[in-house]
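Re: that chain you flagged

S.,

Sorry for the slow reply, it's been a week of failed gels. I finally had a moment to sit down with the sequence you sent. For the record, here it is as I used it:
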Amino acid sequence: MRLMGACGISFATSSIFSLIKKETGNYGVSKEVSQDQPKIASAQDDVALKREAGFSSRGLGITLLRFGIVGGFLLLWQFASGRWIEPFLISSPSRIFASLVTGFHSGDLLQHTWVTFTEIAIGFPLGAITGIALGYWFGRSRVLAEVFEPIIIALNGIPRTALAPLFIVWLGIGIWSKVGVVFLLTFFLNFFNTYTGMRQMDQEYVDLARLMRVRGLKLTFRVILPAISPYVFTGIRTSIPFSVIGAIVGEFIAATEGVGFFIRLSAGIFRTADVFVGIIVLMFLVIIMDKIAGMIEKRVLRWQIQSEHVGVQG
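Prediction finished late last night. Pasting the structure tokens below so you have them in one place:
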């Protein structure tokens, strides 16, 4: 008994000492780790700064390369005009710039631009909102999708520009016929993008929200729309150039004002510089609209950017 007691005391004592040694060792390791943490953080900061510097220098190089390509093209164009190719065929950057200044100074080009912008400003939001709303409801209702999806697909197969003469017959040669063409081109792109987003959305989001008793508009604006918002903004940004195309096609067919009418009139009297001026105005109109849509998208989807950042950090 005494031997067993002595052995028990010896085992307990050795266990206590081993635990003390282990804790002491762990403390030493944790102390070393805590001492190394500032060094690790400093190294990570250095890597992040180097990465940001690399990205900034790379972005500057890309920007300079873009300017170099565009500048070289303009110089080659200016040199070729009148030497290799007749000026009335391709004009020249200097003539185009002079025509642009003259057009805005006289006010004619500004008036034409305002008319085209008005047509797009009315038709584009109407088409985008209608397409997004119907795409949402078709995605939520299986009956609507089964009944109307073949009809929508058949209508989408019709070239929208071929319907422009009908809109002119129905709505006249004023701005409303062009608004109709813009609406039609914008509607289908936004509808199919939103509908695709609804079909690709993970149903578990909706099920979890319903378990938390989220219903109605709260479910729509807090769960569904954030889930499909990348698809929605893809449709919006894709439909921007098509809305401009719709307005210009309508103005080509029948109009008394607008950038499309300005281009058609200039081409009819071989004023090539004015044709390029109209094209440049349309190009800048698309760029401005796309930049505005991109800023809105970045603000609305900032949660997605933050989640991706957290995922990368993890």
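What I noticed first: Residues 92-313 form a domain with the MetI-like fold fold (CATH 1.10.3720.10).

Talk soon,
D.
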